[in-house]
Structures are given as structure tokens and as C-alpha cells.
TrEMBL record:
Gene3D superfamilies per record: Aspartate Aminotransferase, domain 1, Type I PLP-dependent aspartate aminotransferase-like (Major domain)
Gene Ontology molecular functions: carbon-sulfur lyase activity; cystathionine gamma-synthase activity; pyridoxal phosphate binding
EC number(s) per entry: 2.5.1.48
Source species: Malassezia equina
Protein name in UniProt: Cystathionine gamma-synthase
UniProt-listed Pfam families: Cys_Met_Meta_PP (PF01053)
Single biological process term from Gene Ontology: transsulfuration
Annotated spans, Disordered: 46-65
Length: 432
């Protein structure tokens, strides 16, 4: 009897079962996948069927007939990529870090013009490196995009290498504010160019940029995909299968593959990713609401002393749940150009677990993170532990009053109490 057909699995189910083996072929497969550590594999006997077919660049890289060398394919990595591909609604490849993924995106499109504004400083460094020795123009995100026909990559691909590349980070690091993906995707395509979105701050299940017309999604999987502050990884995803194969060929040649152990840790972490991210998003939104109330002086919590209210410590809060918003009285120079009128509710479910705050003075910003108990003063984001950082420590040129908060899995009331106690002590001991 044929079993009834099930409806398409939801994200939490995909995270656990997307790479599940066929029980008809492996009737006793392990519930927890084994880690594959080998970098090389024995060649088959020359008279075997495997030797007659083998693996080549024309093979299906997501389902090879055999493994030859881990720079091409490797079992643990294939399983992790299968899960991420289903979660992202595309074809995903893993890279050794987020920045190696960014560099691979540039090598893939080979743009002659790059439109970008703000975002992670590491991406700007990668772009600067890409531009060396090339006649590449870097323009602002809202400048007019030049129409460049580009150079076709080959007969099998409708890819215009050398065209304009629009690089959008959304939500934005470190503020957590969203940009209008459909707006920039349309502008890119009108200029016969392409759009890459760095969606690190809002992974599945918070947003699916492919629904809004983007051509490629990039993630630093070090953050929410890994989720435990113990691995480096990057992700690129496209929806066109032929482009995916070209990306795979590029990665096979440039060697930007992640290590086997890191990939195994990632596969483990993917199982709980939807649950983690939803909880972190919910907690972050509550903390944003609380901190915003401190700037407005509208505090319902009786445990909050007046000395930390009315912007005495926190002057400004940025987060996608506060959009649309008017330009604030004390807007930073590099945020004033952003489209604050954009409503991200149709683009992001909830809000990112990472957001930014502006502290009233540099002294407070320097010491606040070291007065906290449950927030670790450290860079990065996306782990199960909450982190807080004065951004100038890691991002040169940032206003020293800007702090980034990455919310973990602690109880929201404990985090709120920690912030109240630290800010109160800050005013008592460091008030100018």
C-alpha cells in the first residue's frame, strides 16, 4: 500500500530531516550523522562501474557518484549544504568564512561597478582587495547605476560578468535596520546588473530574500547558522542551478572550502537553528522596546531608577521593529541617508536578534559592557550567549558611542535586570 503523501515540511522539520537518508537504501542509518574527516578517497578498480563513470566537473556536485577529494565534495559538507539549501529555498554552497564567501561572490560576477553603503567593514575590505589592479568603480547605494552589458560567461549561462553589482546588507550591521530589497533589486535589474544581499543578521526563519527578487544571498554562517561561537563558515545561495554549478567549479579551483570538523559542528547546529533564532528574535524585540522606552521616558517598569531614564544613558535605539521612523534629532552621519520610511514588516518576520544603541557619552560606552554580568563584552554575534560591543573596538571609524547587542538565549527578564543594574552603576561611578 502506498503511504499517503505528506504536505511540504516546514522549516523546523527541514532543519532535522532535509538530509535524512532513504531508509530503503540504509535501513539502519544513524540518527546523528557520522563525521567524515578524510580529505582523499581511494580510486575504484579500473574495471568497476565507478571507474567508468567517476566524478567530473559535469557531474551533479550536490549528489556525486563518488568522492575523490574533499576540495570537490565531502559527505558531511554535502549533508549540511542540503539542509541549508532547503532552508534558504535555493542552491547553497559552504565556504571557509563569511568573507571568503563575499570574495567568491565578487569573483563570480566580476563587476565593473559596485554599489554599496555602510555595512560590515570586512566586506568593504574584501571589495577594496578585489578592486586592486582592476578598473572598478565603487559608488553609493543610491547613486545612478551605470548600464553595463557585461561579458557573457559561456553559452550554458545567462550571466553578464562585468555588469553592475549592487551589494545590500539587510538588516544592517550594527543597527539591525532593514533595507527595501525589492527596491534595490529592481534598480539593479533595470541597469542589467545583479544584486547580492548580505542577510547575516536575519537568517531563516526571519526572512527569505529570494522572494524579493535578489540574485544571490550571502551569510556569515559563523553567526546564526553556527550559533555557538565555535566555527567559521560562509554561505552563498542562488536559485539558478547552472549558476550554482559554476559557483561550485569556482570553489573547487580557489579552495575556499570549510574544514571537516567545522562543517560537522555546523550540521549539528542547524538542527536547532529555527528554534534558536525565533527565540532570540523575540527576546531582542522585547529588549529593544524596553531600551527605547528609556530614551522616551515612558517607563512602565517601577524598578528602573530615574537616573537612567530620559536618555541619560541610552540616547537612541536602532532596530527593524522601530521602522518606519522619522529621522532622529541626533542622527549619525552614516545613517542619515538610510530610508527610514521603509516598513520591513512584509520582508522580515519579527526582527533581527542583533541591534544597535547610541550611548549618551563615550565614557559610558567604554565601560557599560564591563559592568554587565550576562552580556559578554566581545565581538561577533549569533551565539547562544548574549554579546555586547563598543563597535569602535572592532570597526575603525565608528562613532565611539555606538554599541552593538547580540541577544542570546538567556531569559529576557534576567537580561533586562542586568542592563538596569549596569546602567545604574555606570551613572553612579562614571557620570561626567
Amino acid at each position: 500500500m502506498t503511504p499517503p503523501e505528506l504536505p511540504p515540511p516546514r522549516l523546523e522539520t527541514l532543519a532535522i530531516h532535509a538530509d535524512q537518508p532513504d531508509h530503503h537504501e540504509q535501513p539502519a542509518y544513524p540518527a546523528a550523522p557520522s563525521i567524515s574527516m578524510s580529505t582523499t578517497f581511494r580510486h575504484p578498480h579500473p574495471e568497476s562501474d565507478f571507474a567508468k563513470t567517476g566524478i567530473s566537473m559535469e557531474d551533479r556536485p550536490e549528489n556525486p557518484s563518488m568522492h575523490v577529494y574533499s576540495r570537490y565534495t565531502q559527505e558531511t559538507r554535502l549533508r549540511a549544504e542540503e539542509v541549508i539549501s532547503k532552508m534558504m529555498d535555493g542552491h547553497a554552497l559552504l565556504y571557509s568564512s563569511g568573507l571568503s564567501a563575499a570574495a567568491s561572490a565578487l569573483d563570480f560576477y566580476m563587476p565593473s561597478t559596485i554599489a554599496i553603503r555602510r555595512g560590515y567593514f570586512g566586506v568593504h575590505a574584501v571589495i577594496k582587495k578585489y578592486c586592486l589592479g582592476r578598473n572598478v568603480k565603487v559608488i553609493d547605494l543610491d547613486d545612478e547605476y551605470p548600464v553595463v552589458e557585461g561579458i557573457p560567461a559561456g553559452d550554458h549561462l545567462d550571466l553578464r560578468q562585468g555588469a553592475t553589482l549592487v551589494w545590500v546588507e539587510s538588516p544592517l550591521n550594527p543597527t539591525g535596520e532593514a533595507r527595501d530589497l525589492e527596491h534595490y533589486a529592481k534598480r539593479a535589474h533595470d541597469a542589467k546588473g545583479y544584486m547580492v544581499v548580505d542577510a547575516t543578521l536575519a537568517p531563516p526563519p526571519l526572512q527569505n530574500p529570494f522572494k524579493h527578487g535578489v540574485d544571490m544571498i550571502m551569510h556569515s554562517a559563523t553567526k546564526y547558522f553556527g550559533g555557538h561561537s565555535d566555527l567559521l563558515m560562509g554561505v552563498l545561495a542562488v536559485q539558478d542551478y547552472n549558476q550554482f554549478k559554476l559557483l561550485w567549479e569556482d570553489r573547487s579551483q580557489n579552495g575556499r572550502v570549510p574544514g571537516n570538523l567545522e562543517t560537522y559542528l555546523l550540521l549539528r547546529s542547524l538542527r536547532t537553528m529555527p528554534l534558536r533564532v525565533r527565540r532570540q528574535s523575540e527576546t531582542a524585540s522585547k529588549l529593544v522596546k524596553f531600551l527605547y522606552s528609556l530614551t522616551e521616558g515612558q517607563i512602565a517598569d517601577t524598578h528602573v531608577p530615574d537616573k537612567i531614564a530620559h536618555g541619560c544613558v541610552v540616547k537612541q535605539v536602532w532596530h527593524s521593529t522601530l521602522q518606519p521612523r522619522a529621522t532622529l534629532e541626533e542622527e549619525l552621519d552614516d545613517t542619515v541617508k538610510e530610508n527610514h520610511d521603509f516598513d520591513p514588516s512584509s520582508q522580515i518576520t519579527g526582527g533581527p536578534p542583533t541591534f544597535g544603541i547610541l550611548i549618551s557619552n563615550e565614557t559610558y560606552a567604554t565601560f557599560l559592557s564591563h559592568y554587565l554580568s550576562y552580556f559578554i563584552p566581545a565581538t561577533s554575534l549569533g551565539g547562544v550567549e548574549s554579546l555586547i560591543e563598543q563597535r569602535i573596538v572592532s570597526s575603525p571609524g565608528m562613532d565611539p558611542r555606538v554599541m552593538r547587542i547580540s541577544v542570546g538565549l538567556e531569559d529576557v527578564e534576567d537580561l533586562k535586570a542586568d542592563l538596569i543594574a549596569a546602567m545604574t552603576r555606570l551613572v553612579d561611578e562614571r557620570s561626567p
